[in-house]
Design goal:
By secondary structure, the protein is mainly α. It is about 75% helix and about 5% strand. It has a two-stranded antiparallel sheet with strand order 1-2. Strand 1 and strand 2 form a beta hairpin.
Length: about 210
């Protein structure tokens, strides 16, 4: 990976024999391919390398004043940093993606960014505000029939409720949708949260006995 003139120009995948793009490709094509490769790495759970390529895409997008490229890069970085729990970089990238997609008037991508902004602000947004954010995103996903996003949104929505019964009901809905569309990651996440809630119920039951 070669950086030139304060922008980034990746000639090859790291350690790969195949060119990511040629020097003659338009800069916007380079940005798209950097982001696509970062997304591919994220799907393979290589979070460190996904972050590296997303940051390079962000640097190049910024140098070219490519608003959509910057928005996509910020959202992907928010997705990566979400796995570290609430942190300042998650807030930075989620909020930046939100602002840029709002500027672009892209409601679907705005909703995706909002889904990352809600957990990013778990320490400084009230539960009500976080619930309103998730509900707003959910309405958009339902409007466009985006089932995978609905599953993820429902899982996030469950975290904005204090009552175990309410959280369990929402997670069961997420699990049913994930199962119906064969969304394995969503099923795994929903089941993990359900198992956690059952463990809480068991601990509470022991305390009452």
């Amino acid at each position: 990976f070669i950086c030139q003139n304060n922008g980034c120009s990746a000639e090859r995948f790291s350690g790969d024999k195949h060119a990511l793009f040629s020097a003659a490709d338009p800069e916007t094509v380079k940005i798209s391919r950097l982001i696509a490769y970062a997304e591919e790495l994220f799907e393979k759970c290589d979070l460190d390398l996904s972050r590296v390529y997303a940051e390079r895409a962000l640097a190049l997008s910024g140098a070219l004043h490519d608003v959509r490229g910057s928005a996509r890069s910020h959202r992907l970085l928010a997705q990566v940093y979400k796995w570290q729990g609430p942190n300042s970089k998650l807030r930075l990238h989620a909020d930046s993606a939100l602002a840029l997609y709002e500027r672009l008037n892209d409601e679907v991508e705005f909703a995706k960014a909002l889904r990352f902004a809600v957990p990013a602000h778990i320490s400084d947004w009230t539960a009500q505000r976080r619930r309103e954010g998730v509900d707003r995103a959910l309405v958009i996903f339902e409007k466009h029939g985006l089932q995978h996003e609905i599953v993820e949104c429902l899982i996030e929505q469950s975290r904005t409720h204090a009552e175990i019964e309410s959280r369990m009901r929402i997670l069961q809905s997420a699990l049913r949708i994930a199962d119906s569309i064969g969304y394995e990651r969503g099923k795994h996440r929903a089941l993990s949260f359900i198992a956690y809630l059952y463990s809480l119920q068991n601990e509470f039951g022991k305390g009452q006995s």
